[in-house]
């Protein structure tokens, strides 16, 4: 149906014009789609496919309800129905995106009305307004904070336009004038000026506004109760985005007491002095409780005052900084490389321009600290810079979290790449292993047979390498089940003793609590063995190796879901690694060993096993201080841990079951398909083959095979699509999947009960799997 809609549009517009439109639609960043009256997707651009994280082949021709999450579709169903009836619809909601988290989206449903008035379909436009929503909320919160601060201030405040219209006044202003907020623009401020002060105030106001600079006025103004009060007002111009003058911001202070005589002034000063001391004490308490380091400077950089906030990077003699230049104070004096940057920033701030910097404090024997610092000018009444406020915020933990997230994202990308490479290599190895296996079986020349067997062993070693790649990319099939880590490690003691030798002292401390975790016991043993061997190689002169387990709770980790975990730690006292090497240690094929002494896949396999089990792996290392690798496994509540069920390979020859059974082989790789067909024909099966899903369905309906050997990853119709279609017609159809991945969960969903044979495989394994499926075991 999707092709029909596209063909119709192409006929109407002309092929090249339609392709240009499709190209434009794909270039648009906004997701859009076209659906017909049956709610089937006739078209969607690449942006929509990316948003839904589905290939277009999984969208086009399908109904909306088949593509969207059922809950999301139920919400949108009435809107779609209304749009199909000819009414434009608009819908805003929060959408839980599978990988981008909660998004704010706006969706428009635009009916496509034909000449005869009928609705042929709907154009769907999706807009991501998350950033806009966050920005609007931030602006509203900022405005609300400003209003709360202004309304609680004992100072009269206002904001006006050039024409005198008041855009904002605070409560103190309204109380003084004695009007409601609704009538704030119904009065003339000049009417409140004392007659003796009127002319001078108006003259200074006109001159001040014309200067486009901050200006101050002092005069008597009549309060709402009829009493005149002395006010000192300060007005500052405000400018638009292009530098144009758009109005003024003002604040007025009641200075009546200062004008009423010397004696009254002295009395008031004495009273206020005590209040100021108390206020200063409160301010100092608040000042010292601020998490940031705050320093008040003269414009030349001399330290006037500072808070006493503790910080790991701050010198304990902080008070000795008072009276010194900031760069000569005890803390920064230890980092002379920053003197030029700090003094330069102070010079710029003294001219009235705020300055922000990122500073890294590094020196031997001290932890590296990352600081976000700012130099902000504090203006006096005359507009000049009286002070500079220096603030330093420690962002070390934030930097570490960002770096950890970047490393995690890099590892995810490497996992996807290596998984794809391993899949393709497994296809190649299937052909190589299969071909060599057939040569071994049919070779009459003993020398040729020996050559083929040697090559076959080498190819199978290659298969083991791809298995390690798949472990890193987390698509390797694991027998994940509840496992007790402590007993598993305890059982490995003899093996570890033999591997490490007598020159390495071993310390194993295992948590006594029998807490089961999700893990594959065999792969976990291999991971521990890999780490022990790496530790041994890092300690050629001997050393200490410790293996510990402990129960921990994790609540805020970008890689791990909140919950209870078991931490398995393997630490050595070896040579260690510099930070750049440790950052790449889990990457596949990265190794510091000499050529021929390591594949570089050991640590990547460890990382993949931990991640595929629902945990992760972390590495800590410093040159000369050894290396610690920590593995995290998710705790399983209420599960009983026991030995793995295991799958034993059946090597014994068995009677050929279902001799002459009809088998349909479906694989897009002609060499793999040829090997499977030849092997099955040698076993006496009646074999037909297909290179793609559509051909497979035709052969399926024509032949009604007893068994379908089906590749899982194919272009066009995937193996899952083919299996669903076959099971839809014959629910009991026997299916054997073959794949370079181990998509066990996906296979169970696509074809319940189907068996998976991982690539590469030999003809014996193929024969055993076919017999097992046909016999119903």
UniProtKB/TrEMBL annotation:
Catalysis: reaction(s): ATP + protein L-histidine = ADP + protein N-phospho-L-histidine
PANTHER family: HISTIDINE KINASE (PTHR43065:SF49), SENSOR HISTIDINE KINASE (PTHR43065)
Domain PAC as annotated: residue spans: 215-267, 355-407
Residues annotated with 4-aspartylphosphate modification: 711
Domain spans labelled Histidine kinase: 420-637
NCBIfam families per record: sensory_box
Keyword Nucleotide-binding: no
Top-rank taxon: Bacteria
InterPro entries in the record: CheY-like_superfamily, HATPase_C_sf, HATPase_dom, His_kinase_dom, HisK_dim/P_dom, HisK_dim/P_sf, PAC, PAS
UniProt entry keywords in alphabetical sequence: Phosphoprotein
Enzyme Commission no: 2.7.13.3
One Pfam family here: Response_reg
Transmembrane helix found in the keyword field: no
The organism of origin for this protein: Sphingomonas humi
Start and end residues of each Response regulatory domain: 662-774
Full protein name: histidine kinase
Record-annotated PAS domain positions: 142-201, 279-353
SMART domains: HATPase_c, HisKA, PAC, PAS, REC
């Amino acid at each position: 149906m999707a092709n029909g809609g596209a063909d119709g549009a192409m006929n109407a517009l002309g092929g090249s014009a339609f392709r240009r439109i499709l190209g434009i639609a794909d270039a648009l960043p906004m997701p859009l789609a076209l659906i017909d009256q049956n709610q089937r997707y006739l078209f969607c651009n690449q942006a929509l496919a990316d948003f839904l994280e589905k290939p277009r082949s999984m969208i086009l021709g399908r109904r909306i309800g088949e593509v969207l999450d059922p809950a999301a579709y139920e919400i949108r169903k009435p809107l779609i129905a209304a749009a199909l009836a000819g009414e434009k619809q608009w819908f805003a909601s929060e959408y839980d995106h599978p990988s981008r988290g909660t998004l704010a989206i706006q969706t428009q449903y635009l009916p496509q009305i034909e000449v005869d008035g009928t609705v042929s379909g709907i154009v769907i436009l999706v807009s991501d307004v998350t950033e806009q929503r966050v920005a609007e909320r931030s602006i509203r919160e900022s405005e609300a904070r400003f209003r709360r601060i202004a309304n609680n201030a004992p100072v009269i405040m206002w904001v006006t336009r050039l024409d005198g219209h008041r855009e904002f006044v605070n409560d103190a202003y309204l109380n003084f004038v004695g009007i409601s907020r609704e009538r704030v623009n119904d009065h003339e401020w000049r009417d409140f000026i004392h007659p003796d002060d009127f002319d001078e105030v108006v003259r200074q106001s006109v001159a001040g506004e014309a200067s486009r600079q901050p200006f101050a006025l002092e005069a008597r103004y009549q309060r709402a109760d009829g009493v005149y009060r002395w006010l000192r007002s300060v007005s500052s111009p405000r400018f638009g985005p292009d530098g144009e003058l758009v109005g003024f911001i003002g604040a007025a202070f009641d200075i009546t007491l200062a004008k009423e005589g010397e004696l009254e002034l002295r009395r008031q000063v004495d009273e206020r002095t005590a209040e100021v001391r108390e206020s200063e004490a409160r301010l100092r308490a608040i000042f010292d409780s601020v998490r940031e380091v705050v320093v008040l400077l003269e414009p030349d950089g001399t330290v006037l005052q500072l808070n006493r906030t503790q910080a790991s990077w701050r010198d304990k003699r902080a008070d000795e900084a008072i009276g010194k230049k900031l760069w000569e104070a005890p803390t920064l004096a230890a980092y002379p490389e920053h003197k030029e940057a700090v003094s330069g920033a102070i010079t710029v701030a003294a001219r009235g321009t705020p300055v922000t910097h990122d500073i890294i404090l590094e020196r031997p024997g001290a932890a590296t600290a990352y600081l976000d610092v700012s130099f902000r000018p504090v203006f006096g009444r005359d507009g000049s810079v009286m002070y500079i406020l220096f603030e330093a915020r420690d962002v070390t933990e934030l930097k570490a979290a960002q770096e950890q997230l970047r490393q995690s994202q890099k590892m995810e990308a490497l996992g996807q790449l290596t998984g794809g490479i391993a899949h393709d290599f497994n296809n190649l190895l299937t052909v190589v292993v299969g071909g060599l296996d057939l040569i071994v079986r049919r070779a009459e020349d003993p020398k040729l047979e020996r050559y083929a067997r040697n090559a076959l062993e080498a190819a199978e070693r290659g298969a083991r390498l791809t298995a390690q790649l798949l472990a890193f990319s987390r698509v390797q099939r694991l027998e994940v089940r509840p496992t007790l880590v402590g007993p598993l490690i305890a059982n490995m003691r003899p093996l570890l003793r033999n591997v490490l030798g007598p020159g390495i002292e071993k310390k194993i401390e295992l948590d006594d609590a029998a807490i089961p975790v999700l893990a594959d016991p065999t792969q976990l043993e291999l991971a521990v063995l890999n780490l022990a061997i790496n530790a041994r190689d890092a300690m050629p002169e001997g050393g200490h190796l410790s293996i510990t387990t402990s129960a921990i709770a994790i609540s805020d980790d970008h890689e791990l879901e909140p919950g209870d975990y078991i931490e398995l730690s393997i630490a050595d006292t070896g040579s260690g690694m510099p930070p750049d090497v440790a950052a790449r240690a889990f990457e596949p094929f990265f190794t510091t060993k000499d050529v021929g002494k390591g594949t570089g896949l050991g640590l990547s396999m460890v990382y993949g096993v931990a991640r595929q089990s629902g945990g992760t792996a972390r590495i800590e290392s410093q040159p000369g201080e050894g290396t610690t690798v920590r593995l995290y496994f998710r705790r399983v509540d209420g599960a009983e841990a026991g030995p793995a069920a295991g799958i034993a390979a059946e090597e014994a020859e068995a009677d050929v079951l279902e001799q002459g059974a009809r088998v349909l082989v479906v694989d897009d790789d002609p060499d793999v398909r040829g090997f499977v067909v030849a092997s099955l024909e040698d076993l006496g099966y009646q074999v037909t083959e297909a290179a793609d899903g559509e051909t497979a369905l035709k052969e399926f309906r024509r032949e009604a095979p007893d068994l379908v050997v089906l590749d899982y990853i194919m272009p066009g119709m995937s193996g899952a699509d083919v299996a669903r279609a076959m099971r839809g017609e014959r629910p009991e159809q026997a299916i054997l999947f073959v794949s370079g991945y181990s998509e066990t969960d996906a296979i169970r969903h696509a074809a319940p009960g189907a068996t998976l044979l991982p690539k590469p495989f030999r003809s014996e394994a193929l024969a055993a799997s076919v017999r097992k499926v046909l016999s119903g075991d």
